[in-house]
Fold this protein.
Amino acid sequence: MAKDKKFVSSITDMEVDFPQWYTDVVKKAELVDYSSVRGCMVIKPYGYAIWELIQKELDRRFKETGHENVYMPMFIPESLLQKEKDHVEGFAPEVAWVTHGGENKLTERLCVRPTSETLFCEHYSNIIQSHRDLPKLYNQWCSVVRWEKTTRPFLRTMEFLWQEGHTAHATAEEAQEETIKMLNVYSDFCNDILAIPVVKGEKTAKERFAGAKATYTIESLMHDGKALQSGTSHNFGDGFAHAFDIQYTDKENKLQYVHQTSWGMTTRLIGAIIMVHGDNSGLVLPPAVAPIQVVIVPVAQQKPGVLDKAYELKERLANIARVKVDDTDRSPGWKFSEYEMKGVPVRLEVGPKDIENNQVVLARRDTGEKTVISMDELETKVKELIDDIQKNLLEKARASRDSKTYVAKNMEEFEKTINETPGFIKAMWCGDQVCEDAIKEKTAATSRCIPFEQEELSDTCVCCGKKAKHMVYWGRAY
Ligand SMILES: [Zn+2]
């Protein structure tokens, strides 16, 4: 037992050192490992299985909304990247360049894609001719590279996995509709699958994606009161279409420029899951993205009939949940800690006594609560429990976020709140970037979004006191 205890206590409490807690969970739950490549991570099987579940669920939603998957090259010729001025300026500082092929210097440098707008645009200019070719609703699953200075597993890595949707439409209205539709797909996904509540809104001009006319975002709040941008959806208008000459003939046979969007979600989401649901015993996974939803731990498994019963229960649950029997020769105590650390939603214990009484013990990871149920009710009870954990995690996350959402009417309140009780700060803003910059300078908080759900907290800007235009969510962010 002493050893078991050591296993759990070897993660730092989040209240003591949140970044260290995060690193401990990432390592001890076996999500990633470090490699010799600076700023890159090895995603281990358990971490990758979570990503696969995220991917599967998002991909289904993309296809249901009419999108098709494609694959683009990973290299972008320098001349192509430079076609859209704002875009290249935005990404140039963090681009990795390929300058040689073998021993030979290339005549034109190739960048390793930091994002693929330019490649999609070039392709669209080749394949779009008529209004009959529209809309084009493409998505790509791939990795991208951004030369980041400081990195952290999942939250910011030089290479990360993501999906990027790129669409082309006949009209500005259709492009706007698509931009919002995909933002809603993202927010529903976070809510229903990740059990993470989000604030939906528009980014300020300063925080907009390079080359976009409008950027929309979903913002979530972590345990430590820091915000995490969890997904973005951009409306490009016809800016890229002009730069890349993407035109089609309309029904009147006139040439028109297309209107485009792009939207992306990344492996960052795994960081969000860790920091929204995790606790001092490790990871807590929402059942919908848990690679193992129920772990069966046989107690006194050397006794006759125990392991057979464990396998039998697994069979019975096969159509209801992702189930694993841990029949290794580790002690039950060690196994309890291990699956707690890994955030497995339900632990099922079964031993000789339980078999004798026709019962099993169910322990839930989110609350630690244990119940004894009759084996006759196994399927219904396990299903109910899984649904309840998923629901409870969302409610808990919402309550935690709401309790860390504050209002500031002036800069004194703003600074006091962000320093003493970090979280989302709702405050009025005049719309001037000078104030946005001043707030960042003074508090290290950035504008997270101008939420769709506006409130009138006061008439005046929190920073300059002039007439306010919007209520903004502010926060320190990952
Ligand atoms: Zn102002």
